[in-house]
Write a structure and sequence with these properties.
Blueprint lengths: L4 H27 L23 E8 L6 E8 L1 H6 L13 E6 L7
Antiparallel strand pairs: 1-2, 1-3
């Protein structure tokens, strides 16, 4: 079979598809791993806000660069949590996640 530009392009697309499938599989496997147990911050993640943390907000989505799944978590006060909504819905995929969880009060209150 002759080496043609269209053949090389097809091979490149196939390799990219395989890489993306591999990245997704690896991300799924890592999703089962427990996160390192670190104490959450005590103040809201938003700049200029010193209110106590009340919730963690997590979103998992596909990175625009094609680098695979990205998971971002922010620890927010009550007011800033109320302002949150999914920001990457257009990049939603099978394992897309957006969830809000309460954080235990600092000092065990």
């Amino acid at each position: 079979m002759a080496d043609t530009k269209s053949g090389r392009d097809e091979q490149a697309r196939d390799e990219e598809r395989r890489r993306m499938q591999r990245d997704i599989s690896e991300a799924r496997e890592r999703g089962d791993e427990p996160d390192p147990t670190a104490d959450p911050p005590t103040e809201c993640h938003r700049r200029g806000c010193s209110e106590p943390v009340a919730f963690s907000v997590t979103e998992r989505y596909q990175e625009e660069t094609g680098a695979g799944a990205v998971e971002a978590t922010a620890f927010l006060c009550v007011d800033h949590t109320a302002e949150e909504s999914p920001a990457n819905v257009e990049d939603a995929y099978e394992d897309y996640v957006f969830h809000v969880e309460p954080v235990a009060a600092v000092g065990g209150d």
